[in-house]
Amino acid sequence: MLTIDSVTLEVPAPAPAQDFYTAAFGLGPRLRVGASDAPTTGFRGFAVSLLVSQPGTVNSLFGDALAGGATTLKPAAKSFWGYGGVLRDPYGTIWKIATSAKKDTGPANRHIDEMVLLLGVDDVAATKRFYVDHGLTVAKSFGRKYVEFATSNIKLALYGRRAAAKDAGVSPDGTGSHRLVIGSGAGTFTDPDGFEWKAGE
């Protein structure tokens, strides 16, 4: 199983961004920041999903992020699948924080069960083939709608770009840099949608 070591979010000012991410989410070495002024507008084509154990933890993480300057895209709320919401951090990255549980079973905490990188791509089937050719194994696939790969540490999933934007509560329009680098043992390459991978350190 391929391990995705980290995702690096590129920002104009890394030091305050690192402070924000540490205080809001506490993801440790899974989340890094790098310096970049690469032009980017609108939807960057991806979101990071944090899966947790209960609604109280969703609220705790949401509250910390909002206190640090994030803005709400979808308020945390109950749904048929559980409880969750979506926000955009002060540096433009979209975060989905959710749980499949509908009730708390204990005190709220900051433990994140799973981190998932959701890429919005133009052609799910073509990008799926690209990643399989680069050594990734498909764990789940729903035709041209959604693909999840068998990766550890950080999970990787593909949506169609419009579906990913709709799920996040934003317009699918956007241009320029993704401002994202994926670190893993898969090697150094750029996928069909311009997402950059670098060999893990």
**Basic shape:** globular
- In DSSP terms (H or I, runs of 4 or more residues), the helix count works out at 4
The whole-number mean of residue pLDDT values reads 95
**Helices and strands: which structural class?**
alpha/beta
**Spatial ordering of strands, largest sheet:** 5-6-7-4-8-12-10-9
The low-pLDDT segments are none
Biggest sheet, in brief? Answer: 8 strands, mixed
Instruction: Report the span from N to C terminus.
Output: 18 Å
Helix content: 10-25%
Proportion of strand residues: 35-45%
How many strand elements?
16
Describe this structure in words.
This protein has an 8-stranded mixed beta sheet with strand order 5-6-7-4-8-12-10-9, sandwiched between helices. Helix 1 runs antiparallel to helix 2 (55-67). The chain starts with a strand and ends with a strand. It is globular. The chain is 21% helix and 42% strand. It contains 4 helices and 16 strands. The chain has 201 residues and is an alpha/beta fold. The protein has helices spanning 14-24, 55-67, 124-133, 161-168, and strands spanning 2-11, 31-35, 40-42, 46-51, 71-79, 82-88, 94-99, 114-121, 138-142, 146-149, 151-152, 155-160, 174-176, 180-184, 189-190, 196-199. The model has no long low-confidence stretch (mean pLDDT 95).
What are the salient characteristics of this protein?
globular, 4 helices, eight-stranded mixed beta sheet, 16 strands, 201 residues, alpha/beta, six-stranded mixed beta sheet
Please outline the helices and strands.
Layout: E1 2-11, H1 14-24, E2 31-35, E3 40-42, E4 46-51, H2 55-67, E5 71-79, E6 82-88, E7 94-99, E8 114-121, H3 124-133, E9 138-142, E10 146-149, E11 151-152, E12 155-160, H4 161-168, E13 174-176, E14 180-184, E15 189-190, E16 196-199
Parallel strand pairs: 1-2, 1-11, 4-7, 8-12, 14-16
Antiparallel strand pairs: 1-14, 3-13, 4-8, 5-6, 6-7, 9-10, 10-12, 15-16
